[in-house]
Amino acid sequence: MHIPSLKQQFQVAFSYDVHFTEGLFNADNTLIRDVLKQDGGAEPRKIFFVVDDGVAAQHPQLMGAITSYVAAHADVMQLSGPITVIPGGEQCKNEPALVQQLLDAVNTYHIDRHSYFVGIGGGAVLDLVGYVASVAHRGIRHIRIPTTVLSQNDSGIGVKNSVNAFGKKNFLGNFAPPYAVLNDFEFLLTLEDRDWRGGIAEALKVSLIKDAKFFAFIQYNAAKLAARDMPAMQYLIHRCAEMHLQHIAGGDPFEQGSSRPLDFGHWSAHKLEQLSNYRIRHGEAVAIGIALDSVYSHLQGRITEAELDQIISVIRTLGFALYEPEMSVHLADAAHPQSMQHGLQEFREHLGGKLTIMLLEKIGRGVEVHEMDGQLVEEAVRKLQQY
Amino acid sequence: MHIPSLKQQFQVAFSYDVHFTEGLFNADNTLIRDVLKQDGGAEPRKIFFVVDDGVAAQHPQLMGAITSYVAAHADVMQLSGPITVIPGGEQCKNEPALVQQLLDAVNTYHIDRHSYFVGIGGGAVLDLVGYVASVAHRGIRHIRIPTTVLSQNDSGIGVKNSVNAFGKKNFLGNFAPPYAVLNDFEFLLTLEDRDWRGGIAEALKVSLIKDAKFFAFIQYNAAKLAARDMPAMQYLIHRCAEMHLQHIAGGDPFEQGSSRPLDFGHWSAHKLEQLSNYRIRHGEAVAIGIALDSVYSHLQGRITEAELDQIISVIRTLGFALYEPEMSVHLADAAHPQSMQHGLQEFREHLGGKLTIMLLEKIGRGVEVHEMDGQLVEEAVRKLQQY
Ligand SMILES: NC(=O)c1ccc[n+]([C@@H]2O[C@H](COP(=O)([O-])OP(=O)(O)OC[C@H]3O[C@@H](n4cnc5c(N)ncnc54)[C@H](O)[C@@H]3O)[C@@H](O)[C@H]2O)c1
Ligand SMILES: NC(=O)c1ccc[n+]([C@@H]2O[C@H](COP(=O)([O-])OP(=O)(O)OC[C@H]3O[C@@H](n4cnc5c(N)ncnc54)[C@H](O)[C@@H]3O)[C@@H](O)[C@H]2O)c1
Ligand SMILES: [Zn+2]
Ligand SMILES: [Zn+2]
């Protein structure tokens, strides 16, 4: 017996808008109203809010503003259940009880595929809320309102969501684009300096591998950005978000292949976060990772000394450290699980066997390589230590 | 301040093959080996098996055959962890502990995005295994080996997966195409008659709304199919699977809109399953639902009496009932939650406010309508009761 195989092939189109605003819940701001009305429905939609407790603490007027806003637009939306505040920061992704609590709410308040499930917070809260929204009823409409620089220009505008499990970061998750992303710059006013600065590292990353003009902007405005200049930050977030979206759309949105070209500076960053027990935050680790791979690129003759100096100078002016002691532990022993260089092996395993690392060919252009010279990595670390 | 919105838009391509075979784990059957090698990898891949206990019980040699097969192809695959047997049937989708057990295995045996997670069983086990595979590491490669008629021609070849929660069917799930589907007809030999027959209802459904020639095939072979003729069943499954795949690819694979055109006969079927506490199985309920909507189509003058007679005759020859007492409970009272007609309202809510029901225009062509006449539904039920 031979029965021919059937070949299934199709494409699925996804689209969503990333909006920028201030005072999202001000009475006269119609953005949320307008976004909800895009679904063409006639009846008021159910809307459910989850808020990062770090945001709630710094914006005590927020809960009242949300309630008033929804009430003022009762023809378009109605609150489903209470506004739910959950712990912010990485810790929330370690809590299966929070996933359960949010799923409970979906069930209790009859939130269906025509309702809206809104997360307001940093990247961690958005990852968790997005995960719940993606699996409840095979996907309910999810609106992200990111409140940190990192989430407004990178983590909150993409298609990934996740929670941690078995002590492993992002063990559970999937790919599920949001219904819309609403970036309100006012939230950024209350960030800690470290979180304000941290998100800038992702913009620096994307500028170095893709856009020399954007690098020049960051270079020119580095001191202003460090001093929390809002217009400079707004431009930075907008441009970084734009490039991040283009990267996703033009590449492999659901990571079906195994290349990860936006991960410049990230092989060591991930490892340093882990080696420091997350004392070093993601953006801080990425800044170091960028410095390291830039020095390495120079040592290999890929970029000039003048280019390297510009990069190092920008990173310092932004207020980032270039070196942390974890970088030197077992430095020469790439096989040691506690060495930074072990991160290369972990990165290769993650990519599925073939190592791909982004280096710099010049400012504004990245180049992929498939091996890293351990001695040169060592030399680069020594150099960063001495700056 | 006005900063322009960014529009994100992209398409994601998905593809997978549905293969047909017999003796999948026979030493000389290279199908699994060939499918795994398609990934182009050089090293042996980790492969993990989950087996429906109904299948394991009826195929006692299966576990040994899997082990020998993998050992014989050690250059291409290696077993990750023990072959895991879980309870089959709807009950497995109600057990959060099973989701946890399978996620545990992913963690313990280091099953990553380059490994294979294989489910062998009926639609329920495949829904559960597919769900775990879709969320672990944001999606690991999932191979489905369906063992019932329904899962080989319908549920196991599509893109949906799910488990139940809060007592609600398919409360958790998402859309995630499999890596491949391997239909082995030998599994069907051990099905209960009711499950053998049940899957035929989905083929009848698709033939009636899309393909008169396929209906003629079922009509001509109805007695053979009822008598468990294997070649007739093989053709039926292949053609039904083909049309189901085309429907998914040509329509709205991830159900982003709100139409569900393949749900002919299903508005009453879902309700009857529920009203009967699942005594009436899905395929049996679908057969009744088809009969009901065919009579209704005739009462509205859409199909001729001769066409209706052909449809009813096929359903009976296949061995299905045309009527169950649950259909008459509160029949005239569509507002009563225990009446079959309440299913119309539930169906509308599920679709998001607008009712869309498929009826027949002729054999082989469906037509969508947006309201149902309660009196005519009543009349159709009375007619089915009297056949
Ligand atoms: N999904 C993705 O594609 C993706 C990409 C990169 C990173 N991430 C994830 O993002 C997370 C990091 O996100 P993050 O950098 O936004 O930090 P975060 O979410 O961990 O938040 C950091 C702290 O800031 C607080 N906070 C948030 N907004 C605030 C505000 N406006 N004012 C004052 N405090 C505020 C939070 O309560 C928290 O304590 C990580 O879990 C990471 O895995 C996801
Ligand atoms: N994902 C989808 O798109 C989709 C579509 C329709 C239905 N479904 C789901 O499919 C499930 C129904 O699937 P089903 O009809 O295959 O039934 P099932 O999975 O419930 O299995 C029925 C019984 O048959 C046993 N069994 C399975 N294979 C056998 C074999 N070869 N020999 C002997 N016994 C065997 C099982 O152990 C079980 O006891 C439901 O949970 C339904 O929700 C999913
Ligand atoms: Zn990053
Ligand atoms: Zn069905």
UniProtKB/TrEMBL annotation, chains A, B:
<protein>
    <submittedName>
        <fullName>3-dehydroquinate synthase</fullName>
    </submittedName>
</protein>
